[in-house]
Predict the 3D structure of the following.
Amino acid sequence: MTEPVVWVGTGWKMNKTLAEATSYAQTLAQAALPETVQLFILPPHTALATVRAELPASSPVMIGAQNAHWASEGAYTGEISMRMAEDAGATIIEMGHSERRSMFAETDETVALKARAALDAGLVPLICVGEPGDVRAAGEEIEFLSRQVDAALSRVCSSEVRKVIVAYEPIWAIGEDGRPATVDQTAPVMAALAALLARKSDGRGPRALLYGGSVNPQNAGELLTDPTTDGLFVGRSAWQPEGLLEIAQLAAAARVPD
Ligand code: PEP
């Protein structure tokens, strides 16, 4: 598999009607996409099949679900399985986002179960990790994140780490109340995570190690000056397709292939 030079993706969270999702996907379908950038979008479950249908079958844009249950089927009201997410068009499954951890009782153990189930279904786990502000203030972020990564990968064997995407999303940097991180703040953490993931995979590393948290067109290029950052996971700034495309162009310019 030839990997892209840089990744740029967005999760839409609890946003967009089918009409809005259709419009977004149509804009992407008509846009000239930078070839060196692997784009991905994580619509809400309701819009997965619509986005899949609107993008041409040959589109390089990957589609993912923001959550899926680890069980294959059964009495889990409100949930969808990995197979159902895939059936609707997803190839990526997000897990461990701080909003799901804090509001929907996602735990290290359920993240581990989801990572295992996604891999078993042939899907790409996108595992989010991130420390709260007080942990960062205490200088304990590497220990905190290492524990989250260890737990998330506790059911994944070393040869499978290569199939996993990890996103570092410090909680203090996410969302409307977030403080955008500088590359001086992200780079040491990304280096520590890259080293940890390399150790866990006999040197191969994950499929991608992304940074997310208040990424925007003003800071995207700076964040990508860190060579251990394989790409950007964007929220608000990419909720319109023009935003995603602008950051993708900036990422392509920041990472010119050798
Ligand atoms: C997120 O919540 O995963 C995220 C990256 O959001 P934002 O870019 O809006 O901070």
